[in-house]
Amino acid sequence: MAGNSRAQFSSRLGFILAAAGSAVGLGNIWGFPTQAASNGGAVFLLTYLFMVFILAYPLLVAELTIGRYGNANPIRSLLAVAPKQKTVAKIVGMAGLLGASGILSFYAIVAGWLLGFFANPMLKIVGLNDAAVWLETFSNERNLLLMLLFMLLTIFVVRKGVAGGIERWSSRLMPVLFVLFVLMTIYIMTLPGAGEGLKMYLVPDASHFSPDLVISAMGQAFFSLSIGVCAMMAYGSYLRKDANLPMTAAQVSLLDTGVAFLAGLLVLPAMFVAQKNGVQIYSETGALLDSDTLVFSVLPAMFDTMGSAGLLIGMAFFALMIIAALTSSIAMLEVPVSTAIEELNIERGKAVWLIGGLIAAFSTVIVFNFGDLFGLVISVTTEYAQPIIGLMTALIAGWIWHRNQVLEELKQGNPELESSLFWKIWPSYVRFVCPVLMGMVFLWPVLKGML
């Protein structure tokens, strides 16, 4: 294991806000409401909450525990818990590093669009209408410029280090995110049509329940907590030994799930407000229109129908989206950066610029080959790499890592853990149940195609 001179989060609250920030991203504010709107609202919400509890939370505990035990980057941490399976540990660690980098490469492009939509109303207010239109119009030049701006923001935070950068900015941005959410939700609820969206979101209709919905909710729960890219392993390595890991993981899960719930509470009523204002959101067959570009089409169309108030509401919404994207992107950049610092023995500033520059270069390639690469990179990283890495992490934690070592690590923050209900269930659960559930997330689309 690595030495104790390693950087640490300065407080438990700072870690919880940073880890929740890592988990809270576009998957919560864009992905979850879109999934809920496409899958019957309340039924999807209830299934998702259940899946966070039975799949995402146990795996989050596993990743944090591996990271804190290893007290190093994900590759070294995995080697520490699986010293006799060095090849497997190195492959999983490298896959996590590449997965996080790959996700950030397309994430930075999408987050760049958010910067454009945020700046658009300000340019309109000062009369720069041509520039405002350019920021909202798809082009290689716009995509490149905005991606680079977002990557610079991410680099700025990560180069400041764990306590001075990641923790400080997460502790500032997460409360702002919550305040913006609450204020916007209250405002949207006062508008005509919001009640219909609220009913869809909170009143279950069992007719929407299906195996597809269960698998979608399982995947959403898994992805929304940043499982399977070693980000939580990297953050866990900066945790103090006296932290109660099961409780900390529960608090991170609750914060992340709370943001997803709030996002649904905002976006679904907003969709029906948009519909009331003449914006079409569902096709004649009942399918959600523009589900992939919901936040770039339906919601801006709604803001446009609201006059001058719409400009401010639109800016607040995209500010919220940028905060969520940034708190996730800094976690994704930290995974390869922490590895480069320890494995290549270079200082943080150089590592951040080197890794950030390489990812930005790959993003540039995607920008100029958008049609061929954008969807492919998303599919490879989120549909294949993430579930497989998550599955391997569960197998390492459940089958390879010695049970007594796991217990000793967990007891450091909770001496009475051995006699708790958590310890009676969790080790066997991660060993048997989590791999089966992960396999279902990964294999269901294949099995469905064969049936």
From TrEMBL:
Name of one Pfam family that matches: SNF
Range of residues in the leader sequence: none
Record's keyword terms, sorted: Membrane, Transmembrane, Transmembrane helix, Transport
Location of the protein in the cell: Membrane
Primary residence: membrane
Topology with respect to the bilayer: Multi-pass membrane protein
Membrane spanning stretches: 12-30, 42-66, 87-115, 144-162, 174-193, 213-234, 254-274, 309-331, 352-378, 384-401, 429-447
Keyword Flavoprotein: no
GO cellular component: membrane
Domain of life: Bacteria
NCBIfam families: Na_transp
UniProt name for this protein: Transporter
Biological source species: Veronia pacifica
Lineage: Bacteria, Pseudomonadati, Pseudomonadota, Gammaproteobacteria, Vibrionales
